[in-house]
Design a protein that fits this description.
Layout (H helix, E strand, L loop, with lengths): L7 E2 L2 H8 L4 E7 L3 E7 L6 E8 L3 H15 L1 E8 L9 H17 L3 E5 L3 H11 L4 H24 L5
Helix pairs in contact: 4-5
Length: 162
């Protein structure tokens, strides 16, 4: 959990307090080649997959995210933290933490690191349930996973038990 003056949180309550009274949140599912994005309504009820960004150098990612943050008037970020099944952290979790630090410096928005252990599987199952073709699933999986991550976080922010 972040201390005073910091913007990166692992606790939804502290993040919610830092964001204040609602506002659009941007969820990110960080892959090695792509970033899935999702946004939610200002009342934190519904997360919707947005787009998949091809990852590049940090400068290009920063510009793309800055445009999205500005166009949607984003008030906070929810970044998936890929923990191992036993809750420990590996290289991917450390990379997500580093990315969160970069975002904190670039955007000065509250950031919530959210456990994403089952997000891709949940997104895949939902798309299969919609009878989406394998090719369409491959193109959209990261954005759908970002929506699963963001929905879990907003459910907690709204007082859910997740």
């Amino acid at each position: 959990m972040a201390g005073s003056g910091e913007v990166i949180f692992e606790d939804a309550r502290s993040f919610g307090e830092a964001v204040g009274d609602g506002g659009v949140l941007l969820g990110l599912d960080l892959g090695t080649k792509t970033i899935g994005t999702a946004t939610c309504d200002a009342g934190w009820r519904f997360a919707t997959n947005h787009t998949t960004i091809q990852r590049g150098k940090w400068g290009r990612d920063r510009e793309t995210l800055a445009d999205l943050i500005k166009s949607r008037s984003v008030k906070g970020l929810v970044i998936g933290l890929p923990l191992n099944m036993d809750g420990s952290e590996g290289p991917r979790a450390q990379a997500s933490r580093a990315y969160a630090r970069n975002c904190a410096e670039a955007f000065a928005l509250p950031i919530l690191l959210w456990d994403e252990r089952w997000s891709t599987q949940a997104a895949e199952a939902a798309m299969i349930g919609q009878d989406m073709s394998r090719a369409k699933r491959a193109a959209a999986i990261d954005a759908h996973a970002a929506a699963v991550i963001l929905q879990g976080a907003i459910d907690r922010l709204a007082g859910g038990v997740l």
